[in-house]
Amino acid sequence: MKQYHAPVLSNIQVSERYWHMTVDSSALPFKPDPGQFFHIRCAGTYSPFLRRPLSIYQIHEHTLEFLYVVKGKGTTAMTRIRKGDTLDMMGPVGKGFELYKQAETVLLIARGVGIATLAAVAQAAFQQKAHCVAVLSARTEEDLLAAEYLEEFGATVYKVTDEGGTSDVSHVKQLIQEDILPFYKIDSLYTCGSRRLSKLAQSIAFDHQIPGEIALEEHMGCAMGACFACVCDIQEGRERKSVRVCMEGPVFPLEKVVME
Known about the structure:
Blueprint: E1 2-13, E2 18-24, E3 37-40, E4 52-55, E5 58-59, E6 63-69, H1 73-78, E7 86-93, E8 105-111, H2 114-127, E9 131-138, H3 147-152, E10 156-161, H4 169-180, E11 188-192, H5 195-207, E12 212-215, E13 231-236, E14 239-244, E15 251-253
Parallel strand pairs: 8-9, 8-11, 9-10, 11-12
Antiparallel strand pairs: 1-2, 1-7, 2-6, 3-4, 3-7, 5-6, 12-15, 13-14
């Protein structure tokens, strides 16, 4: 993991809760993988002291884009970053998604800011000529910011929201079982952003024998594996063990993650 000082090309508010930042990534020697993240210094000062992990929303030849929700002191400080500033970022960090090369159709199940994490998966799937079917869940229609972006890659998008009364797990399960699985041969499944939807994705993957991966979202201190603030449990055969999301993840095989 290296430290970069990337020129900020834009940092704009795109909805009541979300901001979109684009940075010049020319200094990076290679493209990051979908699912990897950067550890971002929130402002030019050291307050707040801890960096914030941001997963990558879009990956281009010379730019990276981040879509983040403003909900605390750190992300509020990030909104004060302006075009022309320099973003202090460390990364790329962690293990990203592994798209199955033989996959022709993939299913994405995402909630909230997890939609941004899976947008890079949709981009990678499109590049290997795979079709995406996406179930996107959010509080409001306004928060489904990545839906149009996914549709640009030819994804079939199903939107569910709290305000529309369609985002409860039972409805999403019915949607997948009645409107998706009978009509698409799903070769792999990817999820991020909600423990309830992740548990649903895990059960669907198990019941239908679909290989899957999950990107976990945890609070992180150092993002270097030293502080053990982002530990989760995975099941390896008969053994349950603790792993660090920042180092061994954030992407794990879906069937291995313990969700209680």
